[in-house]
Amino acid sequence: MTLSDRKLAVSELTKSFGGLNVLSGITADVMNGEFISIVGPSGCGKTTFLRIVGGLETASSGAARLDGKVISGPGMDRGFVFQQDSLLPWRTVEENVQIGPELNGTLDDAARQRIAELLKLVGLDGFAGFPPRNLSGGMRQRANLARALAVDPELLLMDEPFSALDAQTREIMQTELLRVWEAGAKTVLFVTHQIDEAVYLSDRVFVFARRPGRINKIVDVDLPRPRPLSIKRTPEFARYVDEIWKLIEEDVRVSVLQEHVG
Ligand SMILES: Nc1ncnc2c1ncn2[C@@H]1O[C@H](COP(=O)(O)OP(=O)(O)OP(=O)(O)O)[C@@H](O)[C@H]1O
Questions:
Q1: Which N-terminal residues, if any, form the signal peptide (predicted)?
Q2: Hey, which of 47, 53, 197 would you mutate to test ligand 1's pocket, going by the most ligand atoms within 8 Å of its Cβ?
Q3: What is the ipTM of this complex?
């Protein structure tokens, strides 16, 4: 894959809620097809940053540009996957995945064919007619991912999508996500609390610091792809996890102390 052009450009982005400065002077570029993770202590503004890029929240100053255009609201060029699946319980898996094209008015035979391929890609081809309640947590997140991809977004925004899953399912979902990402060459922003997850998945990790939220460091993960899960047991992998952990350790200590005090 070639990282030929800039997909997202964030410049001097700040966000306050009332008197609370949540984000301060965030400047970063994301290249086309890159996988970026965002880590940092609780409350450092990771979700707020993702919501601004998603157009669900407005910046107080500065701007985020997608393909050169200032982001001013939500759009079909961005797909969201949240921690809790947001599947409609009265629709089947396939009907849930169709929602974007339906709203777009683009649900034709070609779109249906594409959706069938997507369901196959995420391993749900045998479950198209099932209601979400009959799926496991991991399967529901696969359906969520397929739904986000169904409109062929420029940018996939994922906010702790695997954090409600058990450890084994989570690891399987990580490998599946990389497979889907490699197949579609999408640009991804992925928020997580798990440093090893961030290292395993990413080309680069944005390490946020808090009060106010800002980028402390951008870590380039120079590990070969495709990455088998066994890469997590290599010394190189451990070094990346260590480096990132050290960057946020002090911040996390302060948060824990503050929680205990008050
Ligand atoms: N709509 C809002 N109104 C007021 N304050 C908000 C709002 N949204 C977020 N905040 C505050 O902004 C700060 C950053 O929140 P945010 O959820 O972006 O952090 P985070 O890094 O994603 O946290 P976590 O890792 O715990 O999910 C927090 O102090 C939060 O209380």
A1: none
A2: 47
A3: 0.97
